Amino acid sequence: MTITVYSKPACVQCTATTRALEARGLSFELVDLTEDDAAMERVQALGYRQAPVVIAGEDHWAGFRPDMIGKLT
Asked: The pTM is what?
């Protein structure tokens, strides 16, 4: 499964999310929404207005969600 984390600089929830994924040994791609207009359009099209947005296979969510991260392991 591919995991992509769409984040922005100085985002506390983004940092918490990536640390939780790393702690579980999960690999992920990190995309900076402030540098990638297409990525910003994609997460907005999904209805999200806050970072981070995590897309993991068929699942996606916004914010720091340890419950969802736990389901990935």
From this structure: 0.94
